[in-house]
Design brief:
Strand content: 5-15%
Largest sheet: 5 strands, mixed
Radius of gyration: 21 Å
Number of helices: 15
CATH architecture: Orthogonal Bundle
Mean pLDDT: 92
Amino acid sequence: MHVEGGGVRYDPWDEPVMADPYPAYERLRAEAPCYQNPERGFFVLSRHGDVARGLRSNEQMISGHGVALQEQPSGLFVSEDPPSHTKTRRVAARAFTKPAMAKHQAFVADVAERVVADGLAAVGPIDAIGDVANRLAFEGLVHVLGVPDVSPADCFAMSEAVFRSISDPDGKGIDEVNQLGLTVGLQVDGVVEERKRSNVAGPGDVVDAVVARTEPDDDGWRLNRYGRSEYVTALIGPGLETTRHLVGNGIELIARHPEEWARVRNGEVAASAFVEEVLRFEAPVQGFFRTASEPVAVDGAQIPAGSRVLMLYGSANRDEHVFDDAGSFRPARDATEHLAFGLGIHYCLGAGLARLEATALFEALARAVDRIDLAGDGERCGMALMRGWRSLPVQFVAG
């Protein structure tokens, strides 16, 4: 963001904004809460109340034209509107409920313990992303989905391509996303079809859920073979990117705020509360676009029908009218009003899993790691709508 003639000028693809968007967000909230970018034409909502209302208004702010700046074909989940979205989401909803997540707690805790132990045993620095966040995110996700043998390299290539395409202002990368999705989808398809042929009750994972939807419902809606593998594959990208950036951001914040980490270690602050503050302070997804289906009035401004509207989760989470001292990292606060996982019908389906994985990791770290030292310059993920790290060298110091 820069200022011309005293006015606010904001573009999420400006390099200074990508490096540190929070000063720009503060100006937007104070001076232009419903802002229109003059070159690209999109609108931006930055205050917590406006973003929350926009996310809940799924009939006025629709998702079926995609969540990137450029219109994209309607997909599954986040890029889908009712009634198809309702049917799609319902298929796997039970696999992500609190009782369902509780069944996976021991498995995820074991993964977290192994990841932390390996980090402590390493000679020299480790990569907080490749050696910690990616391992935890992948092993936890494929376990819950029911596809443990898919290729980690293929899955991460696909997930990064998905979010890089969403974050590209020109919508580039769709062909790469489709090709990588096909590669992963073929691996998923083998698992799904084998489960279907076995006709044996599974462990209640997502593969079980899609196999169960082979038969038509009362409206004749069903998942065919392509739909079954596509469904599971579509959950991999969001599941990996959200969790790995949540964990990576949390590790970096431990290194920068040792006094706050000490409060987690001594039990004064729960690891779960630490996770919520990380989500608020450094939301992995900084925002998604929606499309105004009709004229919408916000803060005295008029958004015309058909406009693309950026819902800035990252700015909403720093709103001083909702969070005291919003620019400070304070894990002891009640941060549960954050919008890091969205809101309304598109609230992140895998939020419970991301919380489970991150909490398990930070609990394991609190038991074994006194402090985390930064061991060099990290590399940001480089995506305008995401906040996280591609690599982050650190050293775990035992407690």
